[in-house]
Hints:
Helix content is 29%, strand content 34%.
Amino acid sequence: MSSRSFIGVDIQPGGLYLAALQRNRPYPKLVGLRFESLEGVLDVSSRQPNIRDARRFVEGLRRGIEALAGPEERIALSLPDRAGRIYLTEVDAPFKTHQEGVDILKWRLKSNLPAPPGQVNLDYQVLDKHDDGRQRCIVAAIAVPVLQQYEDLVNEAGRHAIQIDFHSLNLYNYYRPHLDLGGEFILVGLEHGLLSIQYVVGHSICYQRVSEFKADPQRIFREINRTLVEAYAAFPVMKRCAVLAHVDPEMEGDIDKLLSAAFEREVKCLDPGLKHFSGVGKTGGLQPVGSVIAALGAAERMM
């Protein structure tokens, strides 16, 4: 009997990045990687459904999964960050139930939600609990019509999204278990026209911001500076910790020098190689593979 495949699908404006893994010791087996071009199919928004051509989306999803894993139905879906919102917030007392937490967080964040509270799907995870009862939470919110369209089209393709997360979180999911990142670091993502900055202490994200950028060095530099002014005001110790970067392999120029200048310290650009997996299956023309890292992170979470 063949092993079950765990499939991660990262949705980006240009298309679908897919990764399939299988359980194996000592390292997961990479079954294959694939890219399905869907140029013009997505219009990413946090307020209205994103898919402009449902037929092409369904066909691309079905074709990509069948090429990697045949009839496997369960997938982990990685959505564009701009399709929803991610928040880090603190509450004064523990929640009695998970639903109470959802209700309280919707009320606390109501002015910043992508839609009215009754039209938002919200989930959260408690990151830290303090002795006085305070809790720090990471919260993900997405408008119901946006999420519903993605789920409906995945179902139409004959699959089921049993895990749904955002792109920047799946970048972290990929790198965290594989690299010795230390107990405190900043993880920078520069790809698909988005800049993400995450400040991590231990295994907890303490700060996160995602913003758009233009592929121009000066604009990237200015956007990083704007983000750091806000971040350093809240977490001054960020000025001293290690900085690691995941950079779109197609970006041109001396990105490492640009990042080092912006952070005023050495920045290590991470190698998104496949040495963390046993075997290399079908790669669907994905060379280099840096663009599929979020799909791999999503697939690994299913395992």
